[in-house]
Each structure stands twice: as C-alpha cells, then as structure tokens.
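dumping this here before i forget
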Amino acid sequence: MHGYASSSRRTALGWTALVGAAIGALALLHGRSPRPAPASPQPDARPPVSTTSESGLRQAIRRQVLPVYPADSTVRGTQGVVVASVIVGTQGRIEDLQILESTDPAMADSVRAALPQWEFFPVVSNDKPAEPRVRLRGKLTFYFRIVDGRSTVLDPAGMASLQRGISPAPPRSG
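structure:
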C-alpha cells in the first residue's frame, strides 16, 4: 500500500511538472513570457513600532533643540501651532517626521529643522533596554506664542501653564 501511494504521488508531481512546462512552451510560442512565480514576502527586518502618548514621548527626550520662532512671524504678530508625527528609531534618533497640522508654513519649517537634532533615551523595561528593540511613534505639539511681548515656543505643559495664567518657563533644551 505504501509503495502505491508513493508511486501515485510521483506520477501526480510528474504530470504537474509536464503540464506546467507545456503551458510555458505555449506562452513562449505566442510571444508571451510565462508568469514568474510569486515572490515570497520579505519579512520587515526593522524593529516593531510602539505608539506612545505625547507626554510619554517627551519623557524619553535626552536632548532637544527647540524650534526657532520665525522672525517674519514675530514681526507680523503671528501665533500658531504645529503638530508633528515622529518615529524614533532604536538609536534614539528620529527616523520619520511628518507635519500633521500647521497654522503657518514658516513655523512648520522651523519644527522640521529642529526635530532631527533631538535625541531620545532607548525604550526600557525593568530598567534595561527593551528586547526586542522597539521604535516609538508619537506626536509632538509646539505652540508659537507671543507672551509679554516676547515670542516663545511652548510644549503642551507650557501652554497649560499659560492658560492658567502662569507665565511659562520655556521647555528645557539639551
């Protein structure tokens, strides 16, 4: 019985190969190339991405360079907000940056210029670097405000202080 099943399988595989070869030959005769075998999907070799809140992302900042309030915006008295989406790589640098919202193109350009200079601490678990290494996705909001005649760039905590009537200290810079 075992020999029969094995022999049948060989015959079926032989017919499959023969039919495939015949179809390929016919396709070539008619000026068409046979369809290539579908490519096997390549696994994404990059570490996974974990989404975090803005406050979680800001707590991971090792070094930041604040966006510069554009001079033309200051002269015009323009205030605004810029919201950026970032992915922080396992080395603590921003790998991807997209401006999601901006009330002023010059302010968006300022954020685009500043964020690539930021550095973040690696994601940790139990006081050790997370394994496997994880990339972080999050949003960063910047408020461009003129406070007491001075142009300043605030993070959400600084903006909250301003709304409570407390003169905000600018966000820490590295």
